[in-house]
Fold this sequence. Notes:
Elements: E1 16-21, E2 24-29, H1 40-55, E3 61-66, E4 70-72, H2 77-80, H3 85-91, H4 95-100, E5 107-111, E6 114-116, H5 118-125, E7 128-132, E8 136-138, H6 152-160, H7 162-171, E9 175-176, H8 177-183, E10 188-190, H9 195-207, H10 211-223, H11 229-242, H12 247-257
Parallel strand pairs: 2-3, 3-5, 4-6, 5-7, 6-8, 7-10
Antiparallel strand pairs: 1-2, 8-9
Helix pairs in contact: 6-7, 10-11
Amino acid sequence: MTDSASAGGSERYETIEVERAVPVALVRLNRPQALNALSTQLMEELLDALRRLDRDEEVRAVVLTGNGRAFAAGADIREMAERSAVEMELEDRFATWDAIRSIKKPLIAAVNGYALGGGCELAMMCDIIIAAETATFGQPEIAIGVIPGAGGTQRLTRAVGKSAAMEMILTGDPISARRALELGLVSRVVAPEVLLDEALRLARRIAERPPVAVRLAKDAVNRAFETTLSEGLAYERRNFYLLFATEDQKEGMRAFMEKRPPQFRGR
Length: 267
């Protein structure tokens, strides 16, 4: 990877690292001494970096991973331990998490170790999860007197089903990467030494596709989790028709008929 400055400027971060190798970018959570615990500062820096990359026309896909032994081992408990319910409401710490949902470019989580609590929730906010064989997933919040608060009860249930989600959330027990694959939480499991290579290869593969079509495809798949089948089908059809207004659609179909590789330009 090259160009370690954040996209769109020379901004440097304290808790994350951003590397650009157009047409993809790599974002590393970088608090290894705290197993990349998701502090307020880290989440704010992550959102800023993702927004910059989302605006960068040269970047077409983003890989998110962690430094050290963890993807992210959860929230920063020290920040929350003595908060009151009113303080938690007024701080609105999940506003940053909600904003990450608005990122339109594909996000690939490369889970290299512990993905627990908020770490598991952050991975699930990405569009695709690739896990190292040594990765561990879990929602252990019940063991400290709370429940998942950044979408864990909702996204995990949609990903693995009610029974498996209930077992993980009510016991707090983690699962292995292989079990996560069996349940459909991750798309593939690979050896730790090739995790980043595989994630970046997938990101580059997606980056070869027409950017507007990728954006609308992501939008349509996400809508499937939030609407009825009939409404989702209508939404999909709208996005399908919209793509006939793009130059890339004309180029893609023309290249198919002319039996040549397409040259997509994101227009």
